[in-house]
Amino acid sequence: MAGSYDLSIKLIGNQRPCHAGHKVGDEWLLQDKTPGGICWAACNSIFPFATMLKHGGSFPWQNNPDVITASCPDREVVNVFEIRRIPRAK
Asked: Whole-prediction pTM value?
C-alpha cells in the first residue's frame, strides 16, 4: 500500500468539553500542510500516527489498515480522534 494519501481527522469522542473548543464530529482534512483550526497539542499527539498512514503504513493491531484512533494528551478532556486514510486521485 505504498504511496501518499490525504487523511481525514475526526473527533469521535471526549469525556469533557475540550479546552480548545473542539466538539465531537469536528473534522479536518490533512493534505500537505497542518489543517487549520486543530489545536497544536492534538495535532502534535496524532502526528506520528498520521505520518504512518499518510505514507502507506499500517498498524497490525487495527482491524482496518486505513484507520487508527489516537488521543489528545489533555487528561481532563481525553479527546479521541479517528484518523482515516483517503487515497489521492491520480
From this structure: 0.88
